[in-house]
Every structure is written in C-alpha cells, then in structure tokens.
C-alpha cells in the first residue's frame, strides 16, 4: 500500500468498468418524479419508473454507488433477517407474507435484472453460506433451513466436513447454504443500473447534493447548488448518509460503520483450499462477520468497524485479526485494499418506508442486507410513486418515526456492540 495512512482504498471501483457520465444538475428542470440518492434503492426505483415511461431524474451528492451500494460486501442474499412469523406479527398476515415473498425472490430478481440489462458486474451465483461458530448458531441455521424449505427454497445444512470442504476454515462448526444467492462487484452494479436508467430515458446527476425541498406552485422543488428540479413526487433514498435535507429524517436510524479489507490475489494453490466453491459467507454472530473472494481471487473480509470512520490503515485491526483467525496460512498475505461504509440500523431491524408529506417518501434501512432487497423493492416504490393503491404494497408508507434520545446514538452503538459481543462470546462458551 503506497500510503500507509490512507484509510480509504476501496476495491470495487478499482476493478469495475468506468463509471457512466452523470453531469451535475444545472439550471431549472422538471420531472414527474425526483429521486434523491443514486444507490440501489434510488436507481432500481428510477429504472422501473423510466421503463414505464415516467419522467424521472436522480440526484446524488457524489455519484452512482458512492454510498453503501458501491462500498458493501457485494453478497446478494435472499430474504430479510426475519422469519415469516415475525413479519406477520409485525405487519399482519397479508402484508407480512408479501414482505417475506419479496425478500424470498429478491436474489432471483437481482440476478435476472443483471442478466436482462447485461450489466458487467462480475455476477457469480454459486450460493451463499451462513456460517455458525456455536451450537446456538447451528440451531438458528437449522430453523432457517426448515423455514425456507417450507417455501421450496434450494437450501440445505452444511455439517462440519462439507462446510470445511467448501469454506476451507476451521473457525466454524458448520452452517447452511442458499443456492439462490451469490455475489457481484456492487460498484459496477450501481454504475450499470445508472447506465440502464439513462438508456431508458431517465437522468442521473452526480455532484448534485439536494440542499432543500420546498413546495412551490403545487410541485416539490429540489434545490442543488447549480440547479433545481421541480417534480410532482419525491423519493428520498439517502439511507445511512441521510443529512439534514428533511427535518428529523436522520433520527429514524442509527448509522454504523462496517470495514473491509481485500488481500492480494491468492495463488492457484491457495485458491484450491479457500472458498473452493466461491460462495460468499456471512456468519450468524450478532456482531456480523462476512468474507468472500472476488473474480481475481482476492479474499475480502469485513465486519464491524472499531469506532467511527476509518482514520488510518490501523483502523482495520479487527479485520486483520479475523483474516488470521479464519485462514491462519493467510495471516501475512499482503493487503491491497481497505475501506469502510455506513449501514443504517433501524428499530426492529426492518426496512422503513415513510410518507413525509403529500408526495414525498423516504425508503431505507436494509440493516446491512440491502443489495438484493433494495433492488427488489424498486418496482413497488415505482408503484407508490405512480399512485398504485397502497394496500398492494409490500410496505405501507407510515408517518416518520424517530428514535427517542437519538443524540445519544454513539453511546447506544458502543453499548449495544459490547453487549452483542458479550452475548456472542457467551454462546461460544468463552468466559473471558
Ligand atoms: C460495509 C458494508 C457492507 C455491506 N455488505 C452487504 C452485503 O454484502 N450484502 C448486502 O445485501 N448488503 C450489504 N450492505 C448493505 C447495503 O450496501 C445497503 O443496504 C444498500 O446499499 C443501501 O442502498 P441505498 O440505495 O438505500 O443507499 P446508499 O447506497 O447508501 O445510497 C445513498 C446515496 O444518497 C446520496 N446522498 C446522501 N445525501 C444526499 C443528498 N442530500 N443529496 C443527494 N444525494 C445524497 C449518497 O451520496 C449515496 O450515494 C453493506 C453495507 C455496508 C456499509
């Protein structure tokens, strides 16, 4: 690494095709729908609107994939964190089941969309493994497999020997595999979606932070530094990077950093031992860890950040320790890339859809599992923004709900992490 102190050296843009040209908004424009945020949520919604002939423009403070969508682990995972019974208890039977079905089909939807649009994003569909390092985790895996099987999903348990053969690590007792899933280069995918929005007749503007939203002459006017966009309806899809654009919206979630490192490409001999099937892995811990290979054979390892934004390369101590624990033979493998991103954690860890005002909505909070979900929710958000009956939507738009005492979020996050780590340790029977 040229600069030992450089804290942000993300892998995905370095291995993606060039980003599309997304000029900043300049001058006064009109659209039927204005979308703020060019991550998977904003871009998938824009694509499905543009394909229906709706005039849509997307504004991003930076560019497509600048937020979590271009910085994540690229694991395309079906489903939400919740079991059908949890969702039915929360939302009632029809809506709870609609949500569950949307999640169940989210990975299929994403890979089908990538194929239909011909997006060059290193799509790899060899399943996704959830790994367990405790008996509690193995029991959760068994319940998960049983619940998915009732839906006919292609899932099965991996007991220790098979897990060991597929993953090549002794750090876990086993897990389960979901054949619907896989991985992608998420930045390349976000750029591909942006290109598809433009090809379908929409516009994507980078370098266009929305600074204010005002009601002017029966329309919503979104103002940026050099331009304005008047629209009948607005979707705010700014996720963990939500700023002060809409009063109190940033208080509806807590933003948590997650960091990743990527090694130099592994040799053929190493590749034969490590993640032989090339299925990405996340684990069942409360303080989640995840790892995978990229197309060139780099091993990418991610998990909770130390505290706040990564400041120097030393911020990645937890990820380096995790690499050594997962694969002791790789402890000295050179690290080529290291970066962080922010996840929006919501109460109940459920996605949120808010009706902020007449014609203004906000959708976010995939709680670290948003690649497939944020893509799959696009058509439903397009329905919402074109006035389809709200009863048919998988999520009902609700009034904005904020987290009480949000000012204390850093204290909460630190306390919650300590508490969740302790519970993970307790499950592993580690007394210290
Ligand atoms: C490190 C990390 C690893 C993850 N790993 C996975 C994984 O492997 N699998 C998985 O399924 N999920 C994963 N996730 C979660 C997933 O990345 C997110 O759920 C998803 O990308 C959210 O997409 P989004 O479109 O809602 O928001 P984002 O992608 O965050 O997009 C928000 C956009 O809004 C823009 N913005 C903010 N404010 C303004 C403004 N005022 N005006 C204009 N633009 C603005 C930002 O520039 C940004 O581009 C991970 C997340 C992180 C951070």
Q: Can you put this structure into words, describing what you see?
A:
By secondary structure, the protein is an alpha/beta fold. It has 13 helices and 18 strands. The strands form three sheets. Strands 1, 2, 8, 9, 10, 11, 17 and 18 form an eight-stranded mixed beta sheet that branches. The chain has an eight-stranded mixed beta sheet with strand order 5-6-4-13-14-15-12-16, with helices on both faces. A two-stranded antiparallel sheet has the order 3-7. The structure holds flavin-adenine dinucleotide. Flavin-adenine dinucleotide (FAD) binds next to helix 2, strand 12, strand 16 and helix 11.
Short description:
Helix content is 31%, strand content 23%. It is α/β, with parallel strands linked by helices and 432 residues long.
- The structure class reads alpha/beta
Beta-strand segment tally? 18
Report the principal-axis shape. Answer: globular
Helix content: 25-40%
* Share of β-strand residues: 15-25%
Amino- and carboxy-terminal Cα gap = 35 Å
The largest pleated sheet is described as: 8 strands, mixed
The ligands bound in this entry are: flavin-adenine dinucleotide
Mean pLDDT level = 92
Radius of gyration: 21 Å
Quickly count the helices: 13
State the low-pLDDT regions, or none: none
């Amino acid at each position: 690494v040229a600069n030992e102190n450089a804290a942000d050296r993300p892998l995905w843009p370095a291995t993606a095709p060039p980003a599309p040209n997304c000029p900043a908004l300049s001058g006064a424009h009109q659209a039927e729908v204005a979308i703020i945020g060019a991550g998977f949520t904003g871009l998938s919604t824009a694509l499905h609107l543009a394909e229906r002939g709706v005039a849509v423009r997307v504004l991003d403070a930076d560019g497509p994939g600048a937020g979590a969508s271009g910085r994540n682990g690229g694991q395309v995972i079906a489903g939400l964190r919740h079991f059908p019974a949890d969702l039915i208890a929360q939302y009632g039977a029809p809506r709870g089941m609609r949500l569950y079905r949307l999640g169940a089909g989210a990975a299929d939807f994403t890979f089908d969309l990538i194929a239909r649009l011909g997006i060059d994003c290193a799509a790899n569909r060899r399943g996704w493994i959830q790994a367990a390092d405790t008996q509690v985790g193995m029991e959760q895996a068994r319940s998960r497999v049983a619940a998915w099987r009732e839906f006919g999903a292609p899932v099965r348990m991996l007991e220790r020997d098979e897990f060991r053969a597929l993953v090549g690590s002794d750090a876990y007792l086993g897990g389960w595999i979901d054949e619907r899933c896989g991985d992608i280069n998420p930045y390349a995918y976000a750029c591909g979606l942006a290109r598809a929005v433009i090809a379908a007749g929409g516009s994507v503007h980078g370098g266009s932070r929305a600074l204010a939203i005002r009601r002017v002459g029966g329309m919503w006017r979104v103002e940026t530094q050099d331009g304005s966009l008047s629209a009948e309806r607005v979707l705010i899809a700014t996720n963990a990077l939500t700023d002060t654009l809409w009063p109190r919206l940033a208080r509806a979630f807590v933003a948590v950093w997650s960091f990743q490192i990527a090694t130099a490409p592994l040799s053929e001999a190493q590749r034969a031992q490590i993640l032989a099937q090339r299925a990405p892995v996340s684990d069942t811990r409360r303080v989640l860890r995840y790892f995978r290979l990229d197309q060139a054979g780099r091993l990418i390892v991610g998990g909770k950040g130390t505290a706040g934004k990564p400041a120097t390369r030393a911020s990645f101590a937890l990820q380096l320790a995790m690499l050594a624990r997962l694969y002791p033979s790789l402890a000295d493998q050179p690290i080529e890339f290291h970066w962080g991103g922010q996840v929006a954690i919501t109460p109940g860890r459920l996605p949120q859809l808010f009706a902020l005002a007449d014609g203004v909505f906000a959708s976010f909070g995939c709680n670290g599992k948003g690649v497939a979900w944020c893509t799959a929710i696009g058509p439903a958000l397009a329905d919402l923004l074109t006035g389809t009956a709200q009863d048919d939507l998988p999520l009902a738009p609700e009034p904005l709900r904020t987290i009480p005492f949000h000012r204390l979020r850093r204290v909460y996050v630190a306390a919650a992490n300590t508490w969740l780590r302790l519970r993970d340790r307790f499950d592993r029977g580690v007394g210290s």
